[in-house]
Amino acid sequence: MAFLHGLGMVCILLGIPFFVSGTIGLLRFPDIYTRLHALTKADNVGLGFVVLGLALQAEEWNTVARLLLIWLLVLIASSASCHLVARAALRRKIQPWTRP
Amino acid sequence: MPGKFSCSSFPSPILLGRLLVRLSLFSVLWCVLAGLDGRSWIIGLPAVSAATFCSLLFAPQQPCPVSFLGVLRFIPFFVNLSFWGGCDVMRRALSPAMPINPGLVRYQVSLPEVPQQVLLVNCISLLPGTISADFTDQCITIHTIDRDMPVWSTVHLLERRVAALFGIRVAGGRP
Questions:
Q1: Statement: the pTM of the whole predicted model exceeds 0.90
Q2: ipTM of this complex
Q3: What CA–CA distance (Å, rounded) separates B102 from B99?
Q4: Residue range(s) defining the domain that contains residue A52
Q5: Contacts of A24 in chain B (CB under 8 A)
Q6: Which residues of B touch A66 (CB under 8 A)?
Q7: Which residue among A18, A87, A91 sits closest to B90, beta carbon to beta carbon?
Q8: How many structural domains is chain A composed of?
Q9: B 9-48 residues with CB < 8 A to A
Q10: pLDDT tens digit sequence for B52-75
């Protein structure tokens, strides 16, 4: 049990750099489209590690199932909202930034 | 869809099958959310019935069968690619030189049914280096963070995997 607890902690700690780099990307990247890349992908992997870590530490089966469900719903919501934001930007003729 | 219920006095076997599948899925979901306490079904039963009714109401008319083996193969493929997607964007965000070279790419979809296309469009946003920016007339506009990445072949691979998930094969796909 202690081993699973430790492994869970390692997974949660692994997730943090992804969240941090998603936020750094949001601040550093030049336009709306590239910022969406940072937010959707990095946060999804970060959340994946945090959910995995918490699932390893969970006491009951339905906590694990609930955590997986949260991850799945966030996954769907983030990819759908990413698509909608990018589509709205494209239809307002916001030009993607290109390397000069 | 309500017409479908009133047209015939008996529900068709297909509809009955879909109803039972959805009813059991939502019941399992309720057990996950509320635990195994029997009293929770005072709220659970109306909630599960309402969820089943709504999901049948909004379900596409044509059922889109999912291959179980395809799902099992798709999950590790998807987890692997989305992990590398996260690593890729992390590298670009943290590198002092910020190695990005963004641009738009178009991709012609050959998946036949709408649910399959929606799944493809949503998965593209979690692949390394691509987000789906628009989807009209079987054509996905993809924003890539690096134009030197093999966007077309990655999306084509994903499309073949999505097709396998539904137990079908796709031939083409053009850039």
A1: no
A2: 0.90
A3: 10
A4: 2-91
A5: 93-94
A6: 32-33
A7: A18
A8: 1
A9: 29, 31-33, 35
A10: 999 988 877 666 778 888 889 999
